C-alpha cells in the first residue's frame, strides 16, 4: 500500500477523531478500506455521547462496515483499519475477530490502554486481569445447553465455514 494512501486514510481518521472531541469524548477516529483502497466505513469514539463503554472508534468502524466486513471475512478479502491511536485490548480483539489484515495507527498509546503491541508481544495486562473475578462453568446444565447451541451453530448455514463452502 502506498505511503500517500496511508496518509490520506490516516487524515480521514483524524477528522473522525476531531469530531469525537467536538462531541466531548475521547478523540480517536478510525477508517476501514478494502484492498483496492475503497472506503468501507468510518468510525469515531462515541463512548460518552452513546453512553456505551464499548463505542470505541475501531469498534464503531467495524460495526459501520456491516455486511462488507462480514463478507470480507467469508471471502478472505484483506481490509485495512486506520486509526488515530493504538487500539486498546477490546479493539484489538474486535480487529482480530473481524479478520482485518492490516492495522495502521498514528500514535502509540504506551501510557494508556494501547494494547495491540502488548497483546501481540507479552502478557503485560496480567495485573489488570488479576483484578477481574473469573468464574468458569459454574452450572453443568447451562454449560451443556451452551454446548448444544454451539453444535447447532456448527451446522447452521450462516456459519462462516459453511458460507465459505457455499461459494466454492
Task: Write the topology of this structure.
Layout: H1 3-22, E1 29-33, E2 39-44, H2 47-50, H3 57-65, H4 67-75, E3 80-85, H5 89-97, E4 102-107, H6 116-121, H7 126-129, H8 140-155, H9 160-166
Parallel strand pairs: 3-4
Antiparallel strand pairs: 1-2, 1-3
Helix pairs in contact: 3-5
InterPro entries: APOBEC/CMP_deaminase_Zn-bd, CMP_dCMP_dom, Cytidine_deaminase-like
Domain CMP/dCMP-type deaminase: 4-116
Keywords: Metal-binding, Zinc
Explain what the structure shows.
The chain has 168 residues and is an alpha+beta fold. It has a single domain (2-153), classed as Cytidine Deaminase, domain 2 (3-Layer(aba) Sandwich). The protein is built from 9 helices and 4 strands. It has helices at 3-22, 47-50, 57-65, 67-75, 89-97, 116-121, 126-129, 140-155, 160-166, and strands at residues 29-33, 39-44, 80-85, 102-107. A 4-stranded mixed β-sheet has the order 2-1-3-4. α3 packs parallel to α5 (89-97). It is globular and about 45 Å long. The relative contact order is 0.12. Mean pLDDT is 80; it is low at 128-135.
Task: Name its key features.
14% strand; Cytidine Deaminase, domain 2; single chain; 168 residues; alpha+beta; 4-stranded mixed β-sheet
Amino acid at each position: 500500500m502506498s505511503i500517500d494512501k496511508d496518509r490520506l486514510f490516516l487524515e480521514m481518521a483524524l477528522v473522525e477523531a476531531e469530531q469525537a472531541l467536538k462531541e466531548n469524548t475521547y478523540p480517536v477516529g478510525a477508517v476501514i478500506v478494502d484492498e483496492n483502497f475503497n472506503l468501507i466505513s468510518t468510525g469515531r469514539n462515541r463512548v460518552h455521547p452513546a453512553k456505551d463503554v464499548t463505542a470505541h472508534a475501531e469498534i464503531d468502524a467495524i460495526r459501520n462496515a456491516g455486511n462488507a466486513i462480514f463478507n470480507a471475512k467469508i471471502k478472505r478479502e484483506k481490509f485495512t483499519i486506520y486509526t488515530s491511536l493504538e487500539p486498546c485490548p477490546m479493539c484489538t480483539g474486535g480487529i482480530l475477530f473481524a479478520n482485518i489484515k492490516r492495522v495502521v495507527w498514528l500514535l502509540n498509546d504506551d501510557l494508556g490502554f494501547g494494547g495491540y503491541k502488548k497483546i501481540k508481544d507479552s502478557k503485560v495486562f496480567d495485573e489488570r486481569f488479576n483484578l477481574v473475578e473469573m468464574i468458569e462453568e459454574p452450572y453443568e446444565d447451562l454449560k451443556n445447553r451452551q454446548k448444544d447451541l454451539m453444535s447447532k451453530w456448527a451446522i447452521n448455514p450462516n456459519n462462516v465455514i459453511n458460507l465459505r463452502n457455499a461459494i466454492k
